[in-house]
Structure formats: C-alpha cells, structure tokens
Specification:
The complex is a heterodimer of chains A (about 425) and B (about 325).
Chain A lengths: L2 E11 L4 E10 L2 E6 L8 E5 L4 E4 L1 E6 L10 H11 L1 E6 L10 H13 L4 E7 L12 H6 L4 E3 L8 H14 L2 E4 L4 H4 L4 E2 L2 H6 L3 E2 L2 H17 L3 E3 L5 H12 L4 E6 L26 H13 L4 E3 L24 H13 L5 H8 L1 H6 L15 E11 L18 E11 L2 E2 L11
Helix pairs in contact in A: 1-10, 4-7, 7-8, 8-9, 10-11
Chain B lengths: L1 H5 L29 H16 L15 E6 L5 H12 L3 E6 L11 H9 L5 E6 L4 H8 L5 E7 L5 H14 L7 E5 L6 H13 L3 E5 L15 E3 L2 H5 L4 E4 L15 H8 L3 H4 L7 E3 L12 H4 L6 H27 L1
Parallel strand pairs in B: 1-2, 1-3, 3-4, 5-6, 5-8, 6-7, 8-9
Classes of the chains: A alpha/beta (about 425), B alpha/beta (about 325).
C-alpha cells in the first residue's frame, strides 16, 4: 500500500463544491480521505502544500499529436501534457494519424501509457481514412475505447454522408465531435473576414462558414437524436446558436480553444504566422462573447486545440504557413488568466477544463472526491512567471504567447497518485 | 544553411521594419504607416527625375556598382520593365529572375530561395509575389545589407504604383486637401487600391470614394476612412480624380460577376458618365486597360486621360525609391 498525504493545500474541486484548505490522503492511486486535518502515520509520504492549491488534473478535449518524428509524436506530446497539468488528453484524428482501426487506437493508448503516464483518450475517425465518403467501423472503435468519433478538420463528401454518419453513430451509441466549418464558404481563407483581413489583404473566412455548418448539423442532430459535441467555436453568432439549441433541449455541448478567449484578429495585423489558426481569430466582440458563453455554461469546456508544428511550417508568409498553435502548455495559464482578468470565477474556470470536459467524454474524472482517481495538480497561485515557448516540453514550439506574464504556476502533476511532471521547482514546495 | 536557419524564429512582420532607426526608407513595402514628409520626399525626388532628361546617354550614377534583382513570383511584364529601366538609368546592374519557372515550382521554400539569392551579393530585391506579406517576410529574413522593394503582393500593397499615381495627381492638382478621388472596380482584389487609399489619407485628400458591386467590395473597408458606393453615377459626382481599376478576366469565374458586358453597363466609364465628375477631372488607370470592360476607348484616349503620363511617372518613382533605399544603406554602413 502506498500512501501520499497532501497537507494544507486549498483544495478546489468545483464538481463537489469544495474550496477550502484541508488535507488529502491518497492511497494506491485513489483519493482515500479529505479532511480538515489528517495525521501522518508511518510509511506515508507527506507533501506540505501550505499556501498552494490542489486542483483536479486537466481534461483536454482536443489535441493533434501528429505522428511524425520531426514534428511531434504520441511520446513527446504525452510528456508535454504531463508537464502542462493535463492528466487526460483526447487526441483527434488527423491525416498523419488516422484512427479508423482498433489496432491504431490500441497502439496510441500503449505508447502513451509508457511515456508521459497521462491518460490518452482517442477520438476515432468518423469516416474511413478521413475521406468523408465511407463510414468507419464505429462499433469496433467504441469497443477499443474511443470516446468519440470525428472528421477533425476534414470535409464530408456530402451532407447526405454526414447525416448517415450521424445515424450510424447514434446506433453505435458513440458521440460525435464536430468542428463546424462549411468548407465551401471558407474557401482559401486564412483569417477572419473583416476590416483587418481587408487591410492586410489576406483572404477571409466569414462567420457564416461556422454558423451555416452549425445550423445544418443542429438540424440533423435534432432529427437523428445523436449526441453532438461542437469543437472550437470561434464566433458570437456560433455561441448564440448553441445557446438556443440548448434552450430547445437538444443534447449538445461545445468547447472553445483557450487562445480564442485571449487573441483576436488584431493579432494578425503584423502577419504573425504564430497567430494563424483554424478557425481564425475573430473580432474582439466575438472573443468577449465567447468568454460570456463560457461563463454562462453555453460553452461547456475550454481546450487546448494543440497543434504542434516544426518551425519551417511557420517560417513562411502568412498564407503559406500552417494553422495551429502548440498549446498544451498554455492551456492552464490562459484559463487561469481569465480568472485574473475577472472574465470567469475560479470555479467556472476550473470546471471548464476538468469535470465539464470529463462529462463530455463520459469519464468520471476531472474531480477530487473520495474514491476518485488521484489525478491532481499542485499549483502556486502567487508564483509569477513569463511564458517562454523555447522552454516548452512539446516538440512544437509554435506558440504566440512568448513574453506573456502569468500570476500562478503549475508546480506538480500527479496521475493515480504518481508524480509525472519534470518541473524542478521544489524550492516553491518546502 | 541549417545553422543560419536555427537562429530564425517566426513572428510578426511590423510595417515599421521599412524604416531605419533614424527614419530613412530602408525597404519600400507599403504606403501604410509612412509619414507625409517621407511620401512627399519620394514625390519630390521622382519629380526631379521626370524633369531631367533621361535618355540612355544621360544615366545617373547613383546606383553605380549596385545590383538590383527582380524577383517575380507572379508574372508581370510592365512593372518589371519599369523597374528594370529605373535601375538602368541609375547605372545599376539588373538581374531578372522569373521564379515561377525555377526554384519555387520545385518545392523550395521562400526562405531557401532567398538564402540562395542573397549569396549572390545583390543590394536591392524587387519582389512581386501572389501572397500578401511575402516582401515583408523577405525583408525581415534576408541579409541586413539588402533592401526590398515591393512590386505588388497578393491583395495587400503595390506602393510604387500608388506613388506614381500620387505623382500624376500632384502634377495636375497640387493641393491634395481639396481633392475628391473616386476609385472604381475590383477593390476586393486590388493591392493598388489599398496602397492608394493609405497614400491619399496620409497626403490629406479630402474624400476617397470606392465604387464597386458588393462582390468586389471587401468587408469593413469603410474603416480605412473611405466612402463606399455601389452606384458609379453617385460616386463620380463632382470627383476631381477618377481611378479605374483593371478587371481581371478570372472574376467571371467564382461568381464575382455575371459578364463583362453587364459590368461595363454598370461600372464602365463612358464619356457620358465622366460628365458627372468635375469638368477638369483627370482619368487614371494602372493598366493594362481592358477597353470596353472598365473604360470606353474614347475616355481612355480622351483629353482627360493621364494614363500615359502614369507610365512615364512609373519609371521616375521607381528611380526615386531605389535611390532612397540605397542612400539608407550607405548611411547605415557609415
């Protein structure tokens, strides 16, 4: 029996409405006891966390981990996740890693369990080879442990195929992760279609590319009764549609990438390819509306939308650069910054990256209550630091947050009671 | 090469990189963000080159010993030739490289292409590229002794074209603050229009009007201090300067427009319509002209047309900016 006693941390677990200083005993990887005071006994490891916070490990709904040695791998990105406080990571299907067979899914799970020690959840491919034409073996994927199926950034051949994929997913009882983007309206666009795009002369992606896709999917979801989770909303109008759908009683959820709550089209005025994302960074009004939607619970979760790239993919004129941010290691800082800025309460912020996200993939995680897996973080709420992409563990160093200041820093990450991070900040934990 | 690349990091490309620390023109990438004084200096310098005789035997020695390389990633004959003539009249050596037919089409990255070219000891790159910001990108990542002149990038900027237009306007109407300028045509895809708008705003034009159908008018353009019109007749009323943009043939595809005929019926400049502008209004066009599509022949060749004068001024403006960026190089090194 291994026992770890965390002393005097402020334990923040919104799911159980817990937010107070107490002691937590972890026994054999599970939370065994939470009390005002627990006396240490022989054989227990003790961590004095006075002045620190104990948070549930983060559940990230969307990461592209690649499968290319020179860019990033399951191994490299699971280590990055461990050092980012992400204890459960959903990896999305992509052309470099098409998860349309059970063997592929099992391989990812095994690789991840041997390297970063964090939990890897696989979002399977919705169509064979992500080709958008033929259904994948969804029943098999579900059996292999996939939490959902998705087309990722890829198109459907037709609306008819999308509808059939929904019907079949409903039959298999597996959730759909859909990124709402009408490719026909996005065209060759690479930035938000608006005054900034016009000024810098870059082709735009109109908000309608998101809202038109949303309306189609919502109407078909209503008919097919399939559970749909919308990934990476970018616009105020999109958030409004989710708000209305929920009000109508539809079984839908939604997430937003953390960077979408901080950056806007203003950040591409200087053609910074690090701010080239898909969906694009939209107006400041959109950003503010997305924050509001998270606060109201219309948007359930905040995720990383992690997309590591090798540096050559970003060292190019904006249009030629690849979209995406290497974002695992900015997920927690950016989420906590929303609390600093008064956009969210601490509870709202933590919920959106833990229990709400876990609920979407139907896992009992993202929580700290007696009996739950001891996946947790030790966080120093007062430690100020400056973000440095070069210091990220991810193989992708493509982050636009260089030089951003944060008040509060992750000290340690634990999965099933075992420390999995490599941070050497023990001076902060004495 | 890999060791050089290791020091490179992606990041923003601010417009400020076109100036040296003491405010001299180091690269000419966009008219946006440059001061009125600097734009006026370009016009004044160009005016000198216009008035001085510029026959082949009267070359100016300002760029003697310098090498100018024309890097055209997108085809252009006229713009390239005017840069070539400008360089020759300043006594520079000039090299033309049609990149489409060489490295870029073999999959070489822009950065690798630039690394190879800068190893050839050039002083000025003249860049035309189909993607917005490519000249900024080259200016940011090329060797520090090289100056970059933007000869047109994507839908973004064509600053020498805008300045030759400003010079032409000034020769006829010296007081910008009294001018109403109407720009008609494919604003959405026009780098010329964007550069003109920035230059006219900086030089203090009274009113800038943009005239186009909805499909050719970009979102949010009114934030650039312009007035937007969908009717040519309304937009032309009492204008001092009428700028007609070239309509690319490919706009009929992709449902931008139904037909050239219908475009001409709505947005073609005819003698009758021109009467709506001020009687002494000038008519401009960056060329090449599509007669009967955006402009009637009798107007293009008529007494109010200054189109040929624009072409002549083009060489002078390019001489002016070439001499200015080379000046900044020698001062920077000294």
């Amino acid at each position: 029996m291994t026992q770890l006693l965390i002393k005097q941390a402020r334990v923040v677990d919104p799911a159980s409405d817990l937010n107070k200083v107490c002691d937590v005993l972890v026994t054999d990887g599970k939370v065994a006891q939470i009390d005002a005071e627990i006396t240490a006994t022989d054989g227990m490891s003790v961590l004095d966390a006075t002045g620190k916070w104990m948070l549930p490990g983060l559940v990230d709904l969307g990461a592209y981990v690649r499968n290319q040695e020179r860019v990033a791998t399951v191994e490299s990105e699971s280590i990055a996740a461990a050092n980012a406080g992400i204890t459960r990571l959903c990896c999305m299907p992509e052309s470099a890693k098409i998860t349309d067979t059970t063997a592929e899914v099992t391989l990812i799970q095994e690789k991840a369990s041997h390297s970063g020690k964090v939990w890897f959840e696989v979002v399977g491919s919705l169509t064979a080879g992500l080709g958008g034409e033929q259904l994948s073996n969804m029943a098999g994927l579900k059996k292999a442990g996939c939490v959902a199926v998705s087309q990722g950034h890829h198109e459907f051949e037709s609306l008819d195929i999308m509808r059939k994929a929904m019907e079949y997913a409903q039959t298999c009882g597996i959730k759909l992760f859909i990124q709402p983007l009408e490719h026909g309206l996005a065209g060759k666009g690479c930035v938000h279609d608006g005054a900034i795009a016009t000024r810098v002369g870059l082709p735009g992606i109109p908000v309608a590319a998101e809202t038109v896709a949303l309306s189609q999917i919502l109407l078909m979801a209503e008919q097919t009764k399939v559970d749909v989770h919308f990934c990476r909303l970018s616009s105020a109008a999109g958030a409004d549609m989710i708000r209305q759908a929920k009000a109508r009683g539809l079984s839908v959820t939604a997430d937003v990438a953390a960077h979408q709550l901080h950056l806007s089209e203003q950040d591409i005025v200087d053609y910074n390819p690090l701010c080239h994302t898909l969906p694009p960074l939209r107006s400041e009004a959109d950003r503010d509306a997305l924050r509001q939607a998270v606060r109201e619970g219309v948007i359930d979760a905040i995720c990383s939308d992690h997309q590591p790239h090798d540096i050559d993919a970003k060292l190019a004129p904006f249009q030629e650069s690849s979209p995406g941010i290497s974002a695992l290691e900015s997920l927690l800082p950016l989420t906590m910054k929303l609390v600093d800025e008064g956009a969210l309460t601490l509870q709202e912020a933590i919920t959106s990256v833990t229990s709400n996200a876990a609920d979407i993939i139907n896992r009992p995680h993202g929580r700290l209550s007696v009996g739950s897996d001891a996946d947790f973080l030790i966080y120093d709420p007062l430690l100020q630091w400056i973000f440095d992409p070069a210091a990220m563990y991810s193989h992708g160093k493509n982050s636009p947050f260089e030089g951003w200041e944060f008040n509060g820093k992750l000290l340690r990450t634990y999965v099933k009671g075992q420390r999995v991070d490599h941070h050497s900040n023990d001076e902060a934990l004495t | 090469m890999s060791s050089i690349k290791a020091n490179l990091v992606p990041g923003p490309l601010p417009a400020s990189l076109q100036l040296t620390s003491d405010g001299k023109l180091k690269h000419f990438l966009t008219t946006e963000g440059l001061s009125k004084e600097l734009l006026t200096e370009i016009l004044d310098r160009a005016e000198q080159f216009v008035t001085l005789p510029s026959k082949a035997q009267n070359k100016f020695p300002l760029l003697r010993g310098k090498t100018v390389m024309n890097l055209f990633f997108e085809n252009s004959t006229r713009t390239r030739i005017t840069f070539e003539l400008a360089a020759q009249r300043l006594s520079a050596d000039i090299v033309n490289l049609d990149i489409r037919s060489s490295s870029a089409s073999k999959g070489e990255s822009l950065l690798d292409t630039i690394r190879n070219l800068e190893a050839m000891n050039c002083d000025v790159f003249v860049v035309r590229h189909h993607h917005s910001s490519a000249p900024h990108f080259i200016a940011r990542y090329c060797a520090p002794h090289i100056s970059v002149l933007n000869a047109g990038d994507g839908y973004h900027a064509h600053p020498t074209q805008a300045m030759l237009d400003m010079l032409t306007i000034r020769q006829h109407k010296p007081d910008f603050s009294a001018l109403t300028v109407a720009i008609t045509g494919d604003i959405r895809h026009s780098r010329v229009a964007r550069s003109q708008i920035h230059a006219l705003n900086t030089l203090g034009a009274k009113e800038i009007r943009l005239i186009a159908p909805g499909t050719l008018m970009p979102a949010g353009i009114e934030q650039m201090n312009v007035k937007v019109f969908s009717s040519l007749d309304e937009g032309l009323r009492d204008a001092d300067v009428v700028v007609m943009l070239r309509l690319q043939k490919e706009r009929m595809q992709g449902a931008m427009l139904p037909s050239e005929k219908e475009y001409f019926s709505l947005y073609g400049l005819t003698e009758k319509r021109l009467k709506l502008a001020k009687p002494d209004a000038i008519v401009m066009h960056p060329g090449p002209v599509n007669r009967g599509v955006e402009i009637e022949s009798s107007v293009a060749d008529g007494p109010q047309s200054v189109i040929m004068q624009q072409v002549t001024n083009g060489i002078a403006v390019r001489m002016a900016v070439m001499s200015m960026v080379v000046d900044s190089q020698s001062k920077g090194q000294g």
